[in-house]
From TrEMBL:
It comes from Dictyobacter arantiisoli. Belongs to the TPP enzyme family. One of its GO terms (molecular function) is acetolactate synthase activity. One of its GO terms (biological process) is L-valine biosynthetic process. The keyword Ribonucleoprotein does not apply. GO terms for cellular component: acetolactate synthase complex. This is Benzoylformate decarboxylase. Keywords: Thiamine pyrophosphate. The keyword Hydrolase does not apply. Residues 406-550 form the Thiamine pyrophosphate enzyme TPP-binding domain. Residues 5-111 form the Thiamine pyrophosphate enzyme N-terminal TPP-binding domain. Residues 193-327 form the Thiamine pyrophosphate enzyme central domain.
Amino acid sequence: MAGKTGRFAIIEQFLADGIDHMFGNPGTVEQGFLDVLSEYPNFKYILTLQETVALAIADGYTRATKKPTVVQLHSGVGLGNGIGMLYQAKRGHAPLVVINGEAGIRYDAMDAQMAAQLVEMARPVTKWATRVVDPTSLLRVLRRAIKIAATPPMGPVFVCLPMDVLDALQLEDVIPTSLPSTRALPESQHLLQAAQLLKDAQRPMIIMGDGVATSAAQEELTRVAEILGAEVWGADSSEVNMSAAHPLFKGQLGHMFGEHSRAITTQADAVLICGTYVFPEVFPALSEVFARDAKVVHIDLDAYEIAKNFPVDLGLVSDPKATLARLATALQTSMNADQKAAAQTRITRHAAEKEQEKAHQDEANQARRDTMPLHASQFMEELAAQLPSDAVIFDEALTTSPDLVHYLPPTQTGSYFLTRGGSLGVGLPGALGLKLAHPDKTVIGFSGDGGSMYTIQALWTAAHHKIGAKFVICNNHSYELLKLNIQQYWRERDLPEREFPTSFELTDPAIRFDELAQALGVQSARVETPEQIAPAIRQALATDDPFLIELIITNEVPDHIVHKAVNKYGIA
C-alpha cells in the first residue's frame, strides 16, 4: 500500500475481505477508482445500464453467496435511481455495501451541480449510512460498513466517498474486516421454559422466516417441527427454510392482507416464531393475531422484532440453529409418551391433507390442459420434466408462483429464492446474480410482464458479460396482482365488482418481450401454444448463453363475475 492513494486502497480492502465483484453504473465522480480496476484482474466489475439493475443483481448474488457484496452508485442521481431497490434490500436483509461517489469535500460550500445530501437520502433505506471525511479513516470506515452489513440482522449500508478523499495518499494498512460471531445461546432455564410452553399443545404451529436460512438452521427447525407435530408456515420467508415437500410445511402466510394470516394463526394453541418478524403484510391485522390463550415463543437474533407489535410469552435473542438444536433436545426429553404419540398423529394427518390438496390441484390443472390462452401450469409441468435436479430458481412470477412451486417445490437449501421486500423488477437481474454465484448450475429467473419492464436493461448485462442465466417472462398483458388486490378491496368495502381499471392493463400496444430480448443481445422464443412449450424449453437449456422465453398466458381472474370482452390480442 505504500505510496498509493485511496482509490487503490478501497479495492485492496475489498479483496482482503474476499469481495471480488462490484456491480454498478459508472459516473464521473467515481472515475478515479474505476480507472484502477484494470490493475486488479481478480476483481470483476459488472456493468449495468441503470442503478436499479446493479442493486438487484447484487441482491441476488449476495443471497446466493451469503457474504457482503459491493455496489457502486453515481452521485445523487444514481442513488435516487436506486432508492427503491435499496428499500428492497433493507426489507430483504441483504448485506450490500453501497459506495457512492461524490465530487469532493472541498466543494461542499459551493452547492454546485449534482450536489446532494447523500447520507440523508440513503439513511431511511439502509441499516447504516455515512460519509468519509478524512483520508486517514477511509479503510476503517469501509471495514465498519462491511461488519455492520454482515452482522445479523443483516442489511445494506451506504458509504459516500468524496473524490478528494480517494485521491489523497493512503497510510492505513489493509487488513481483513473482523466479523463477530453471533452464535448466541439462551440460558438453560429459558430453553426448558420454551419446551414447557410448547410441549402440551394440541394445535402447535411454527412461523418461520429467512433468519432460519441465514443461520443455516433448516435441519434443526424441521426436527423441532417433527417432534411437536407442528404445522409450519412461512412469513418473510423467501428461501428454503424448510423443504416445501415436507408433510408439515403448509405454505406462506399472507403477504398483502393480515386477515388472511390471522385466519390461520388463530387456530394454534402454541406458536413458535423463528427468524422472522410478525407480520410482514402490507395491510397487517392490528390485534388478536393469536388465540387468546395461545403460548408464543419467539427466537431471533434481531431483538427489535421480538414482541415489536404483539406480546410473546418468551422471547429469545439467540442464534436459531444452535437454539433450535437444544430446544429439540429439551422437547424430546421432556415430552411424555402420549404427547409424542399425538405429535405423530398430527404428522400423519397433515401428510394426508397435503396429498389430497396436491391431487385436487393436479386435477384442476389437467382440466385446463391445452386451453388457449395457456395456463402457466402446463408450462411449469414440462419445465419440471426437463430441468436439471440442481437448478437454481429466482421467483418473481407473483401470480404464477403457485404453479411454479407446485411442479418445482423448493426442497434443497440454496435452490430457490423468492422476491422479497416489495420492489418490482428483481426477477431478471436477481437471476444474473444467482448465475454469477453458481456459474456451473442452470439458473432460471421468472418475472411477469409488468415487473420485468422495471429492469429489462438487465438483459443487456447478461449478453455483455455472457452470463448464461435463463429467463421466463409470464406475460398476461396486465398487472394481475393488482386485479386480485382490488377484488379484496371491493369485498372489504361491500362494493360491487366491475371492470378492472384500465391502468391495470398492459396492452395497446402489446409488449413483445422476445423481440426486446433479441434487441438487447439475448436469444429468445415466444410460447403461445401447447406445442411450442417443450421445444422452447429444450432450446433454452441447450445453450450456455442467456436465453429468454416469453410465455403468453391467460389473464383470467378467478371468481371475477363481470363480463370480459376479448380484446384484439385474444386475451379475455
